[in-house]
Amino acid sequence: MQTAITQITNGLVFGMLLFLMSAGLSLIFGLMNVVNVAHGSFFMLGAFFAMAIAGWTGSFWLALALAWIPAVAIGVVMERVFMRYLYRRTHLDQVLLTFGFTFVFADAVRWIWGPEIRNLSVPEALSGAIEVAGVIVPKYRVFLIAFGGAIALALWLFLERSRVGAMVRAGVDDAGTASGLGINVSALFAMIFGLGVGLAALGGAAASPVLGVYGGMDIEILIPAFIVVVIGGLGSLRGAFVASLLVGVIDTLGKAYFPELALFVVYLLMVVVLLTRPNGLFGVGRASV
Amino acid sequence: MNDPRSAAATAPRPMLEAQSSDRQRAFVAQRTVAALVVLLLLAAVPLTGNYTTGLVAEVLIFAIFAMSLDLLIGYTGLMSFGHAAFFGLSAYVVTTLGVHLGVSGWWGMLAGVALSTVAAAVIGFFCIRVSGIPFLMLTMAFSQLLFAVAVKWRDITGGTDGLPGFQRPALLGLSLDDRTTLYYLVLAGFALTFWLLRRLIRSPLGSVLLGIRENEQRMRAIGYPVQRFKLIAFTVAGAFAGFGGALYAFFNAFVSSDILHWSLSGDAIMMVILGGTGTIVGPALGAGIFLLLKNFVSSYHEYWMLWVGLVFIACVMFLREGLWGAVIKRGPAWLRKE
Amino acid sequence: MPNDILRPRAAGDRRRFLSHTGALGAAALGVHAPAILAQSKAPLRIGVLNSFSKVFAALAQANLNGMNLYFDQIGGTIAGRKIEIVREDDEINPQVGLQKLKKLVESDRVDIVAGVQASNVAMAIVDYLRQSQQFFLCSGAGIAALSYVNVPNFFRCSTSGWQGHSVMGEWNHDNFSKEALLIASDFAGGRDTLAEFKNGFVKKGGKVIKEIYPPLGNNDFSTYLADIRSVNPPGVFAFFAGSDAVRFVKQYSEYGLRGKIKLSSSGFMVESDVLPSQGRDALGILSSLHYADTLDNPENKKFVAEYRARFKEYPSVYSEYGYVAARCIHDMLTRIDGNTQDREKMRAAMLATQFNAPRGPFRFNTATQNPVHNVYIREVAELDGRVANKVIATVRDVREPATKPT
Questions:
Q1: Does B69 touch chain A (CB under 8 A)?
Q2: C148: closest CA of chain A, how far (Å)
Q3: Are both C307 and C391 inside the same structural domain?
Q4: In this structure, what is the dihedral angle of CA atoms C374, C375, C380, C384, given to the nearest 10 degrees?
Q5: Chains sharing 3 or more CB pairs under 8 A with chain C
Q6: Would C403 be classed as within a structural domain?
Q7: C27 and C151 share one domain
Q8: Domain extent at residue C347
Q9: Are C182 and C276 members of one domain?
């Protein structure tokens, strides 16, 4: 019983990590109907920028606070110069374009920072672990739970409760009418894309003490992120949140009780979900939270 | 004399009709000549040396792979991210049967293509239930499941290290270890695939597939069993991919789990896009461009992925119809199929 | 006078005759000289096939650095032939590796091929190497099977995993714990490592409590660490590579197991490519490897100093691979005056090669054409403010069995 509680707890903690990995992807798809395959690249950029900033300033917190800025800058440029022309085209073209960008970003990172494995250390204040009901949980992971929860809450407030959120949803639902009402749809899209990649970068920075900082992490997190978003339902942020926790728990329990199937479990889960509920668990189409 | 038929036969035909059918004949003749020239050039490749022969053979094998994928992407409108599953499965069947059971490569090839076809039918059956992004992810998931099997079933597949030791079969008394002989086998396979796919596209089935890509709802409304046709396309594409995979096993005399990884499916998609979807020549050209780009750039420049990525981005932005598509649009009229 | 006509040679004539003959002779030699000189002056082309992209990129680069360092130390020529390195990237993909190898052999026409860190690539190219008889010096892959491929021109100067891990298994039982829990990434390298460890460990009477194989690229080890905690073994032996190694070691410490449950590992898990990222979380881990950058011998001190001066970082075992490979090539070719046309001579010369390398005494096992060298037991400790591997025991002249162990 103790083991089960331990593993479920581990799963939930891992799930929060998955949420940080997938929130940005879900946001961009949910609000803009755009598939950003370069999502993993922005996650990786966030981790590298954080490592660089921490190296210069010696402060983890500064790194976490600032790492998203250069990533958002790159994202906005990408949106204005390239993505903007593809909104009218099919999903396929967006997938392809952003897929091409993953190659560029991967080599750019290697060019700038070299191929070695790097790392961002957990700040002193958060090192070590606490014991809760017989389960060991590292302090940093507790922080990640709080951090992830805060992000989820902030996103919800922004999208559901703010004027900007309403404008965004309007712009996505009917761009013509929205701009007729005076909403600058084009600027809005740039902002949303920036927000999405910023989330990815923030996730990368926050997760880097756990995952590490290295080339190749872009591809490694892309698949779990896509799986979470697809299972949760394309376009649903709530779905992404729930799916993250679900996938986290199932993956962890799978590793614990069916170790031989560890590689298969998550893919099987995705197959089952997609075949029974093709729109995911919470998917209702676009622009839903 | 008064027989209208004979009058019609001897009366001069309207000018336009005569011109257009003459033009059509000229176009066909030009296309045939072009095709023969290309075939001749390809047949002459072994004169350039062992190394380039091997390189072109590899391009032709991936051309088969890419052409089969285009049946899905360009003709039926199904974006599959799991096509490597059928390419790799067949390669594994050929290699494992040969290494573990001593089965001749020819029987292995038959088994490989058969198994890929069956796998495509089964996986396709499930995947076509969804479309768009879910379809993309589902095809990828199935392919990754196969990948996981290849990695874990180390006793049979060799796992991540792969399975060496495949003995190439003999071809009409000639050894396939001789690269030139192997090349001609691959060339024959490529020509066969090209010809078969062309016939398929020209057939009523091909028109249906194109119709599905253009407007699935309309096809359904007219009364076509769209799902059945999608499944047919998926299965046929899988069969051809399997053929390519078997040839690849012959070529390398080796197989490893990388052949089932989704990145190979991604490479194939790049080939199709670079060359041009919705044509038969396009993906073949794209395979050549992609592989040659990868090889030459990587020999001279450490950061070749960057350049391939940039070329690809430029292609998606500005040359969406692919290189061959652009050639057709802006080239001489006889290239366009009428 | 008639005699004057018959006596055209005067004093100056002899000089002229000699100079004419000399000119003729020089002309004759001159026609052949370029050919002879060309033969010994033809550049020595070395093909380096390694994984310069993807996860082994740093390792491959370190390898090449080590090689370049040695070649520069000897002045860039061997037996009068200028060294030219042609490098190719195998992308850790056997299919690509095979293709690039063909390019090096058939198109670039290199004299020797070296490199290959990735075991899957190494296994894939064996057949081609056997058929083409290309002279090959493996300076990376550690898969034990490579020692038994029986290809005459195939040599390995890195190590066989068997040497390090089997020795660790024996030492582990005698000095660490009599029972162990084993954990490694689920890929060929991981499974082979544990099998090799078990080979030595069980032979000495050790008992394996449990074996765990997390998937390759695993992000979260909490499941497995909780399992280890509940089993509470006297000792754990682990092997992970790359970012998995960093994550495992850090999480092992994060979850409170460091210091509570003794951890030992393959040397590769705590080498200089990952140790800086693991940092203090790795302190106390015992590992086995045929090299440590803290080794106290003159060759190594020189190697470390020069490597640091040039590349601004400490060398790793991978740098040493390249350095030793370069030295092997140098020694072999010097023995046969730079002749790369006669492969049998090359092979004999390579078999006879032995010297003091940074890792200690180095020579080839004639049965397997794999190195015979020391294996060191090291402990991760803080030395002069740097987290490094301190050598605490030495097992000398480890030689693998002549035939493949079951």
A1: no
A2: 30
A3: no
A4: 0
A5: A, B
A6: no
A7: yes
A8: 3-159+297-366
A9: yes
Tokens 């691979």, residue located: C321
Check if the beta carbon of residue C196 is closer than 8 Å to that of residue C224: no
| C interface test, pick of B48, B149, B161, B300 with most C CB neighbours within 10 Å | B161
Contact call for B310 and A100, based on CB within 8 A: yes
CATH of the domain at C351: 3.40.50.2300
Could you tell me how many helices (H) and strands (E) chain C has, helices first?
Answer: 13, 15
Q: Model confidence over C150-160: pLDDT tens digits?
A: 999 999 999 99
Q: Classify residue C342: in a domain, yes or no.
A: yes
- The answer to whether C289 and C376 have CB atoms below 8 angstroms apart is yes
User: What is the rounded radius of gyration, in angstroms, for the C-alpha atoms of chain C?
Assistant: 27
User: Residue range C368-373: average pLDDT?
Assistant: 95
Beta bridge partners of C263: C236
Average pLDDT, chain C: 88
**DSSP conformation class of C106:** I
Is ipTM over 0.90?
Answer: no
Question: Model confidence over B63-94: pLDDT tens digits?
Answer: 999 999 999 998 888 889 999 999 999 999 99
Shared-domain flag, residues C68 and C143: yes
Kindly determine whether residue B133 and residue A230, on different chains, have CB atoms separated by under 8 Å.
yes
- Domain-located, residue C81: yes
Ranges of residues in chain A whose predicted pLDDT is under 70: 1-2, 171-172, 284-289
Any chain A CB within 8 A of the CB of B305?
Answer: yes
Contact C274 A122 (CB under 8 A): no
How many residue contacts between A and C have a Cβ separation below 8 Å?
101
Q: If you ran DSSP here, which 8-state letter would residue A118 be given?
A: B
Domain count along chain C = 2
Cβ–Cβ contact C244 with A under 8 A: no
Q: What angle do CA C267, C269, C270 make, to 5 degrees?
A: 75
